[in-house]
Write a structure and sequence with these properties.
This protein is mostly beta strands and about 240 residues long. It has 4 helices and 10 strands; from the N terminus they run E-E-E-E-H-E-E-E-E-E-H-H-E-H. The chain has one domain.
């Protein structure tokens, strides 16, 4: 009788500013126990081109939009189990995971007082999700006689983006989903930043007009603070017919 197959451990890896590759010298955390399940959800956001509709009932034209994707999972930690090492307080095992919630200076936030948390990749077997860690809820549910927490669960929520490209001209247009959800390069908007200023601070290379169209931003001088921007947008203005 063959040995039972053991699935490799899931990992959380810090991403670089492009949200495409692990950061040099960045954090990497291997979970103690693999999650029992993963929950992935998607939300479409296909903005209308300005002035595309009229009073005669013509349908507004759809433009390229950026939909949201979310990953929810639960992890367990136990200092009495294998893999805990010499850790005597379970928070020594959970802290490296919750550290992905902490703000960190990036090229996008250089010169501001609003650092953003780093991008993070959850990788488990062939499953991969890149995004930002929105929330981490820790539950301590077992204590030693001297009051040390020995066991904990972490409920994590990560958010990413996926490009939605509606087809124009059809009665019931179909949507074409771009790259795997969570793999788009995302940048958090600092408090008080303008879209042109943010793009300039990052070194340019793309136009803020294309970023505004692709992300459904109506006022580039006051984008929502903390919002996630999809910057892989070259050619969006040309594809949507806007200028």
């Amino acid at each position: 009788m063959g040995e039972p197959t053991t699935l490799a451990k899931a990992r959380l890896v810090e991403l670089d500013a492009s949200f495409k590759a692990p950061a040099a010298g960045g954090r990497s955390v291997t979970v103690q126990f693999n999650p029992e399940s993963l929950k992935v959800s998607y939300t479409n956001r296909s903005p209308q081109a300005p002035g595309a509709g009229d009073q005669r009932g013509n349908a507004p034209r759809q433009t390229v939009g950026a939909g949201a994707s979310k990953l929810a999972l639960q992890l367990w930690f136990d200092v009495t189990a294998e893999g805990a090492g010499s850790t005597r307080d379970v928070r020594g095992l959970t802290q490296p995971v919750t550290a992905f919630m902490l703000p960190k200076s990036t090229p996008a936030t250089a010169g501001t007082d609003q650092p953003a948390p780093p991008g993070v990749r959850f990788a488990w077997g062939t499953f991969q999700f890149d995004g930002l860690m929105d929330s981490a809820e820790e539950t301590l549910d077992f204590f030693s006689p001297d009051g040390r927490p020995l066991r904990a669960s972490l409920s994590l929520s990560l958010s990413g983006q996926v490009e939605i490209v509606p087809v124009e001209g059809g009665a019931t247009p179909a949507a074409t989903v771009g790259p795997t959800p969570g793999t788009r390069p995302l940048v958090a908007v600092p408090e008080g930043a303008t879209l042109p200023g943010l793009i300039t601070a990052m070194g340019g290379g793309i136009s803020w007009q294309e970023v505004a169209v692709a992300n459904g931003i109506e006022n580039p001088r006051a984008p929502a603070a903390g919002g996630l921007l999809d910057l892989d947008v070259k050619g969006v203005v040309g594809r949507t017919g806007l200028s």
